[in-house]
Amino acid sequence: MNTTRPEPTTPDPSPAPTPAPATAGAGRVVLLTTSHRVAPGLLSWPAWQALRAADRVLCADGAHPQLPYLREAGTAVDEAAPTAEELVDACAGGRTVVVVATGEGESALTDGLARLAGSGRVRMPELELLPASYDLPGARLLDLVQVMDRIREECPWSSRQTHQGLAKYGIEEAYELVEAIEEGDRDELREELGDVLLQVVFHARIAEEDQDAPFSIDDVAGGIVAKLIHRHPHVFGDETASTPEEVKEHWLRTKAVEKWRASVTDGIPLAQPGLALAAKLTSRVRTAGLDVPLPQAPGIGYELLALAARAEAEGVDPEAALRAAARAYRDAVRATEGVEK
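User: That's the sequence. What structure does it adopt?
Assistant: Structure tokens below.
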């Protein structure tokens, strides 16, 4: 073979190869992708049409969750992992081959097909990527549950955690979420929402192991769904509400019936920050229409109680207002120190 290269100044007399177009005679390759977050067998109608019309259906993973359902529907599936060249040959004569993609995808196959197409010397079949199932909204939550389950079983730290041990992290993550909201940082907001969600899923996973009263993340989700529907009769029932005040009235009325509370103060967590606690108490009193004067006594605590009540009456969150003032003070301190924000 002559391996001598022409001189740089000598043009190549042969024309550049023209890529061979895909033709009907070259056949068709359909790469069928599915979501593992959707129950196997729930495929789109175009996917079923492609499978039924195919001359051959291939899948490299013999344990692919779709295979039993495809075979039950009368679709023969060969367990094979052809190379790009073999797949092109299988399509010769206008044949259609459907490749059911594995969970890891078919990068080696698609890369090989791209190289063949780029060579311009192979009659390429028509190539089609056909999504057979799509993720539903919220489907990635299933991934979170699966990941949490594995971490709980295999991680030396996570496997030993308890509700009591994780409680402080729930408080910390809630405060970090509030900070992200107040700072207006969208990236931080998304991350902190994820951290709060992790706390919920983590506690639910621990709860599954309780010997006396176990429950799962599905029980948690089912409970809040039922509560939301019950407390929104203007959305899911026959009642009407056209203002936020009417919505709040519906919420409080149904909540009172659910909880059978003897006092408007029942259910208020006393361990929350003081300003928030004071504002919550005064809000409950005002909403219930009770006339309960604030206690009068010397001391800064009672002065703060009065300020919190005033803030709540004016529609101001005293905790948020104090944090904003504290951040302004922090910035002033850093400016005095010559430190950038």
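Residues 186-207 form the longest helix (22 residues).
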